[in-house]
Amino acid sequence: MVGKSAVGLTLIRVVFGLSLALGHGLPKLTGDMSKFAAGVAQLGFPFPTFFAWCATLAEFLGGLLVAVGLFTRPAAAMAGFTMAVALYRHRADPFGRMEMALLYLAVMAGIALIGAGPWSLDAKVRRRA
């Protein structure tokens, strides 16, 4: 992948990774985790506090890793799984409420499948090996 494709993938990866991390993960990380854990409990998850922390870290740390392109495929897969749960959570809501989870899910699934591209830390690590 060279040229415009690499620029396009990098742009998508950085924008979606940073917006997931800073717009969704960071507020959960610095906010009231018990409130988020209560919402996770309503979904029927066992150990809701544990899974709330998993979701928060998937959004924050996973988003940052996707943005810089390090451990990109597993980070995108974890963030994508979290977005699948968020989509399930919003399944009965109007489309406007579920749209963001759907967009993040689609982008993270795509990045998990194709990888970070040539302008990433993953590519730099591979070139050194």
N- to C-terminal distance: 20 Å
What letter string, H or E per element, gives the SSE order?
Answer: HHHHHH
How many beta strands in the DSSP annotation? Answer: 0
Shape: elongated
Unreliable stretches (pLDDT < 50, length at least 5) are none
Helix content: over 70%
Structural class: mainly alpha
User: What is the mean pLDDT?
Assistant: 96
Question: Could you write a compact summary of the structure shown?
Answer:
The chain has helices at residues 4-30, 33-42, 48-68, 72-89, 95-114, 121-128. With 129 residues, it is mainly α. Belongs to the DoxX family.
Defining traits:
single chain; 129 residues; mainly alpha; 6 helices; 0% strand; membrane; Oxidoreductase; DoxX-like_oxidoreductase
List the helices and strands and how they pair.
Layout: H1 4-30, H2 33-42, H3 48-68, H4 72-89, H5 95-114, H6 121-128
Helix pairs in contact: 1-3, 1-5, 2-3, 3-4, 4-5
Subcellular location: Cell membrane
InterPro entries: DoxX, DoxX-like_oxidoreductase
Protein name: Oxidoreductase
Task: Provide structural commentary.
There is one protein chain. With about 130 residues, the protein is mostly helical. It has one domain (about 5-129). The chain has six helices and no strands. The protein has helices spanning about 5-30, 35-40, 50-70, 70-90, 95-115, 120-129. The longest helix is centred in the N-terminal third of the chain and has 27 residues, at about 5-30. It is elongated and about 45 Å long.
